[in-house]
Write a structure and sequence with these properties.
There is one protein chain. The protein has one domain: Metal-dependent hydrolases (TIM Barrel, Alpha-Beta Barrel), CATH 3.20.20. Helices cover 36% and strands 13% of the residues. The strands form two sheets. It has a six-stranded parallel beta sheet with strand order 3-5-6-7-8-9. α5 links the parallel β7 and β8. α1 crosses α2 and α3 packs parallel to α4. The longest helix is centred in the first third of the chain and has 17 residues. Belongs to the metallo-dependent hydrolases superfamily. CpsB/CapC family. Keywords: Hydrolase.
Amino acid sequence: MLFSFGKPKPVTADLSFLAVDMHSHLLPGIDDGLQTVADTVAYMQALQAMGYKKFICTPHILNGVHNNSPETILPQLAIVREALKQHGVNVEVAAAAEYMIDDVFEQYIKEGKPLLTFGDQYILVEMSYMAEATNLYSVLYDLTIKGLQPILAHPERYNYFHKQFDQYYEIKNRNTLFQVNILSLSGYYGKQVKQTAERLIKEKMVEFIGTDMHHANHLKATQDYTTSAEFYKLTKDIKLLNNTL
């Protein structure tokens, strides 16, 4: 006797368990992310349909490349909020930044210049993909001394740590939280990045998951991957802090 069970039921993207995307480049025209307000509105609508209720936009601050500051970021936030209101898009939007760990940023901290934070004094930082920041630990210390909670963006993408996994434990021991990209889990950046992201999650070293959304390819890859059962199986047993924001 033949039995027919039909086709597997497709998974629908539902990121409501995250609720908040705390790493994206959706503010228009100030870094290598989206460039127009119209695109920002469209992308936020698309991500809202996937379950997001709030966006904390984090433009790059990188000396000589993306010379952003509160003075360039916050006016763009106001423009986006007004555009969303005009289009009837009911979603919350805030802004912080993704700070490159370098000598300029370290000096910025020491001088007490204003930093863009979110949530419980969280601050998002990143390193070059080419080499570990030589001042990584001193910057993490300086931020902690100021009462800030550093979050290292996409640690899985720092290839120089892939064969030195103990370095991740060392960074975690320096009062640092980890944020993994959905794109990394999807395999968008390659097999090693995917495997490292999965290991970080399985070892319960990840507190946040972000889109790190920049452009159309990122949106499509995110939409495709979050309709896979793999993503939900991987994340179902970990305690994430996105929805506390």
